[in-house]
Structure formats: structure tokens, C-alpha cells
Amino acid sequence: MDILAESTKILADILDIEGREITPETYLIRELGAESIDLLELSVAINSRFNIEVNDDELFLRTLRLHLRTAAGEGRDAVGYLAEKYPALTVVRIAEILADMGGGPVLRVKDILSYVAWHGKN
Amino acid sequence: MILNFHGKKALVLGGSCDLALTLAAAMMEAGIYPLLTFRNEEGQKKIAERLSPGGGSYGACYLDFGERDSLASLLAQGGDEIDFVVDFVQGDFEGYVAAADEARVYQYFNDNVSFRAELLKKVARIMVKRKKGRFVFISSVAAGRTNPGQGFYAAAKLASEALYRNLGLELGRKGITAVTLRPSYIRAGRGKAYLEAHGDEALRLVPTGRFLTESEVAETILFLLSESAGGFNATELTMDGGLTACK
Asked: Which of A37, A47, A48 sits opposite B174 (nearest CB)?
């Protein structure tokens, strides 16, 4: 199954943005304007389309800042700590996320794809 | 009025109580398939005795609030086609706040609030997928006006009302709405025993001079499930003959 094609189709339907280019690098919130209710719908659609259990907090990186505070409080390395919390993300992607946090919500389409691919395998 | 219910499916939580059974019979007559939950053999038997003779189509499934495995099997049986949820479930807990057993308090809120939140999340996600759904929560006037000893009952009802209210305001744009009905004295269920003991005294407080009947509450719930009542969302409706308006 082409996860990217399926995911972009789901996103276009939920966000009513048919025809607009969506790539793995596209930001869901910053660029596509996804709101909380859209993310809920996305989570339900992913669960249904790919038949995987979805943890919304993990899928949408909602607890990212909380994890960072915990890592700092415990004197842990942030990248290593986040890699444990987000097993679907690569260390390279986590480092990219940390460098990008000042620009707003970091969630990109490729994070969704990673989640689906990882949970589909595990 | 739009009262077209044909082909709809309703999950009736706490389906073995008298009011739920009256509602289920009315639903079957209106073309709704009710799936009623029971938590013990007695409840299962009561559902069969009341509904089987009518010859209509209904389902019954075990669900015990607090027992998470029973929720998984209910959802497996309920499938992906739940149009309505009517929730009658409420555990009993009478006792003064200053006298209650702590372990029982934790258990009570786990069963009546936390479990309900999990159930609502899962059913709401089914409805989100279908982009439609309607919840009716049966609360009580005691949620707003309690007597001594009803603190925990009222607290669980109010917390549950809040969950339903938020479902309605969070998912209204996606076609999913929720409303709470707060009925007062009904000669049914746990209200029956109370009215047998205190009926005359209670009746003096009701401006209409009568108690509610099961069938009028069931008809009101059916109306609340209808498209015509869709404007009632994220709110609580009191059905008490004017009882709580009195000083």
C-alpha cells in the first residue's frame, strides 16, 4: 500500500484542500491549517484505513514539550529521551524537530507516514 | 416534525432498567434497532421477558461499567453502525461526604466517570468516521439539586453531563451532537421505591401535581433522538413538571 498516497488523500478530504500539493515535508498545522478537530478526524481515518491502534498524543507529537521538560528534569539527553517516546521517528528527524521548534508546530506529513509505517510493522 | 428512524441503530446503556425497556419497545415500533446492555443474568432475563414477546428486532450485550474487557466485546458486537447512544447507567451511592468509605469513592468515580469517558471516546470515534451521531444522557434533577446523602451520585452525574456537553461542542461541526435530559420523579426503577415511601410529600412539591410516566419520558427521549431536536446540543434539559423552579 502506498502510505503517502493514502495519507494525502485522507488529508485532502478532511481539510477540504483537494488539488493542493501535499508532500512529506508539508507541515500539517503551519501550512495546511489543521485544527484539533481535524487531527481527531485524521486519527480516526488512519485507524480505520491502516487498521492500526492510534495514540493521538504520540501521533501528533502533542506531549513533545512535556517530554522535553521531563528529560531536562532527569538530566537526560533530549534526543535519546524522545527516541524512546516516539519510536516511529528516526534520531535524525528528532534532531530536526528540536531545531525547528521555534517556528511553531513541528508536525509534518512525514511524521504521520513514519507512525503508520512503524505501527504497521510492529 | 422529522421522526424518520427507519434503519437506525441505538446503543442503550443500562438497557435492563424499566425506563430503558419502555424506550426500547418504542424504538422498535419506530424502526430503530436497539442494542441493550445488561450487567448480570437478571438484567439479561428481564430484557428478554419484556422485549421478546413483541417479536421485534433487538440485541442484548453484556457490559459492566468498570470492566474494560466488557467494553471491547460490546464494541465488537455493536459494529461500526451506531447512530444513537442513550445512556441510563448510574451506580448507586448514598452516603454523607464526611462519612464515605474512601476506597468505595475511588471505585465509584472510576466506574461511573472514567469508564464512561473511555466508552464515549470509543463510540464517538465510530461516529466521527460516519460523520453523524446523537448522544442522549439520562441524568437526574438530583444532579442540580441534591438531598443530603446524594453528593457522590450528583457529582458523578454532573461529571458525566460535562463529558456529554463537551462531546456536543467539540464534535457538533462533524455532525455529532449530545444532550442531557434531567427527569425528576418517575414511578419506575429506583424512583419507585422512593415514591412508595415519600410519594405524598414529593407530590406536594410538583407544580403539575403528578409524577412523570415512563412512556412520556421515553417519548421525549425519542424526540431528542430525532432530527427535529438536533438544535438541542451541549445542553441539559430539565423535565420535572416545574419541581426545581419552586422555592
From this structure: A37
Task: Report the CATH number at residue B158.
Answer: 3.40.50.720
Q: Are B156 and B100 in contact (CB under 8 A)?
A: no
B2 lies in some domain = no
Residues in B touching A48 (Cβ below 8 Å): 129
Q: What's the total number of domains in chain B?
A: 1
CA dist B131 and A14 (Å) reads 11
Q: Is A44 within 8 Å of B125 when comparing Cβ atoms?
A: yes
Please report the ipTM that was assigned to this predicted complex. Answer: 0.83
Could you tell me which of B191, B85, B213 has the C-alpha nearest to residue B138?
B85
Cβ atoms of residues B17 and B189 within 8 Å: yes
Q: Looking at the domain assignment, is residue B88 inside a domain?
A: yes
Q: For residue A96, what are the domain limits?
A: 3-121
Residue of B nearest to A48 (CA): B129
CA distance A52 to chain B (A): 14
Residues 6+ apart with CB under 8 A from A106: A27, A61, A64, A97, A100
Q: Where residue A108 sits, what CATH number does that domain have?
A: 1.10.1200.10
- Per DSSP, B142 falls in state G
pLDDT mean values, one per 10 residues, chain B (247 residues): 88 96 96 96 97 89 93 86 95 94 97 97 95 96 91 97 98 96 85 75 87 94 96 97 89
DSSP string covering B87-136, please?
Answer: E---------GGG--HHHHHHHHIIIIIHHHHHHHHHHHHHHHHT-EEEE
Do the domain assignments include residue B43?
yes
Number of domains chain A contains = 1
A48 touches chain B (CB under 8 A): yes
